[in-house]
Amino acid sequence: MRFWKKDEPFTRPMPPARVSLSAIGFVRNTVSKPRPKGWEGVESTIELLPEHLPRARGLDRYSHVLVVFYLDLAEDAPEQPAETVLPSGRKVGVFASRSQLRPNHLGVSAVGLLSVEGRSVRVLGLDAIDGTPVLDIKPYLPEYDAHPSATIPPG
């Protein structure tokens, strides 16, 4: 990848139609099957692959992180619905839900960071089951990630 200088002319190259990602680690916890809620008290360890250990340097200085993961069990779902039903009974498009049956099966969670010890990144509240591939971890930055004026629809 090439980076451009601020005053250098730039023409965006054509983006790829397909992308390929690799796991940086795997979720370890006691949750063995998907569930719709009850994640707030779940402690998980993200076991980083050895080659990613240097990339975690300094992560322990943050209180929260964003975890991007691949919902691998959803890959074999018989359908990828355009709509889903929320726990409230309201029908919405899948992009307006937290359903795992998404076109690209990506999950993103903002979670509390408990500790970083060697290859183990311990977090609280990650809504991913044991064995889930983790694609990325980023520090949670309130100035970018928190939106106090955000709203959600009632019920």
Strand-helix topology:
Layout: E1 25-28, E2 43-48, E3 64-70, E4 83-85, E5 91-93, E6 106-117, E7 120-124, E8 133-139, H1 142-145
Antiparallel strand pairs: 1-2, 1-8, 2-7, 3-6, 3-8, 4-5, 6-7
Low-pLDDT parts are none
CATH superfamily of the domain at 45-142: YaeB-like
Distance between the termini: 45 Å
- Shape descriptor: globular
Largest sheet: 6 strands, antiparallel, barrel
Assign the CATH architecture of the domain at 45-142: Beta Barrel
What is shown here, in short?
This protein has 155 residues and is an all-beta fold. The chain has a domain at 45-142: Elongation Factor Tu (Ef-tu), domain 3 (Beta Barrel), CATH 2.40.30.70. It is built from 1 helix and 8 strands.
Can you walk me through this structure?
- The chain has 155 residues and is an all-beta fold.
- It has a domain at 45-142: Beta Barrel (Elongation Factor Tu (Ef-tu), domain 3).
- It has one helix at 142-145, and strands at 25-28, 43-48, 64-70, 83-85, 91-93, 106-117, 120-124, 133-139.
- The protein is globular and about 50 Å long.
- The termini are far apart.
- The relative contact order is 0.28.
